[in-house]
Design goal:
Elements (H helix, E strand, L loop, with lengths): L6 H7 L7 E3 L4 E7 L3 H18 L4 E5 L2 E6 L9 H11 L2
Antiparallel strand pairs: 1-2, 2-4, 3-4
Helix pairs in contact: 2-3
The structure holds ligand H2B.
Ligand H2B binds next to loops.
């Protein structure tokens, strides 16, 4: 079981992820990406997929042509955990 982050922990950690939006009511973070075209968007998704498999932590996401919408939450924790924070940072670094 993965530990769910407390409100105080989130308050301390989220300033490191300014591009992400907290949906506090549903305990998840989201970010939208836009690319030049579908090829760029799908290339990005491939890189995220490799990160996700390596970390055994997978995004909920959707793609429409050049747009990729990513939602991070930890199903095993019933909310946000350090795994989401680490995945968001790794995605930002791509
Ligand atoms: N991804 C996310 N986002 N949350 C999880 O709880 C989770 C996961 N659990 N990827 C992993 C896979 C688990 O189901 C496997 C069995 O390790």
């Amino acid at each position: 079981m993965v530990k769910k982050l407390s409100q105080a922990e989130l308050t301390a950690l989220l300033p490191d992820l300014p591009a992400w939006t907290l949906d506090a009511a549903r305990d998840r973070i989201t970010r939208s990406f836009r690319f030049k075209d579908f090829s760029q968007a799908f290339g990005f998704m491939s890189r995220v997929a490799l990160l996700a498999e390596k970390a055994d932590h997978h995004p909920e996401w959707s793609n429409v042509w050049n747009r990729v919408d990513i939602l991070l939450t930890t199903h095993d924790a019933g909310g946000l955990s350090m795994r989401d924070i680490e995945m968001a940072k790794a995605i930002d670094a791509l």
